[in-house]
Design goal:
two-stranded antiparallel sheet, two-stranded antiparallel ribbon
Length: 195
């Protein structure tokens, strides 16, 4: 990930390094052992959503780090739905419906741990393309889609696959709401902002 996220002027070297190790499992047993830890993290996240829901209806203390009272209930509902589906998928294994997606599409989340995702399994995902105006890095989207489709009950990119919609509307939450939620009274921006 460090190489993947790094900026490099040597595109060919970056492509070679990423293609050699992009999400290539080096210790599948350790990845499989991480499944319970990931499940614990999701369970903790669901507890946080439940706590935020309780705090939502209370008066915000003046020294609160976050102002849960302004968090949209629809956001809590969405987070709970994704958390519950993830927890079930990790606990039970097998295909589980992805919440808020229509028509339905199911994901085997546990399979990412039981048969670790290998970003190199379809061959090189990245290449350097030379054009008259310069070089750029291209991604083999079809290969990447095949890697993901193995974990789904149907290939959403296949010819004739239905168009799907996600019933999540976080983009409609005003910026001011996010600011009130995570920066009540400007306590973070005033304390850590550069002035």
């Amino acid at each position: 990930m460090r190489v993947f996220l790094s900026q490099s002027d040597d595109r060919a070297a970056w492509v070679a390094a990423v293609n050699a190790g992009f999400f290539r499992p080096t210790d599948p047993a350790a990845i499989s052992a991480g499944r319970p830890r990931f499940a614990d993290a999701i369970a903790l996240g669901r507890r946080a959503v439940a706590a935020a829901r309780i705090e939502h209806d209370r008066a915000r203390p003046s020294d609160a780090i976050f102002d849960w009272t302004v968090m949209p209930v629809s956001l809590l509902d969405d987070l709970e739905a994704f958390g519950a589906a993830s927890e079930l998928g990790l606990r039970e294994g097998g295909m589980q419906p992805i919440p808020r997606l229509s028509p339905a599409l199911s994901l085997d989340l546990a399979s990412f741990f039981d048969d670790p995702f290998d970003g190199t399994a379809e061959g090189p995902l990245y290449s350097v393309v030379s054009e008259s105006w310069g070089d750029y890095v291209a991604t083999d989207n079809e290969a990447f889609q095949r890697l993901i489709a193995r974990h789904l009950d149907s290939d959403p990119w296949a010819m004739g696959a239905p168009e799907r919609t996600v019933d999540v509307h976080w983009d409609t939450i005003p910026t001011d709401t996010w600011k009130l939620l995570f920066d009540p009274g400007d306590r973070w921006s005033m304390a850590y902002g550069c002035h």
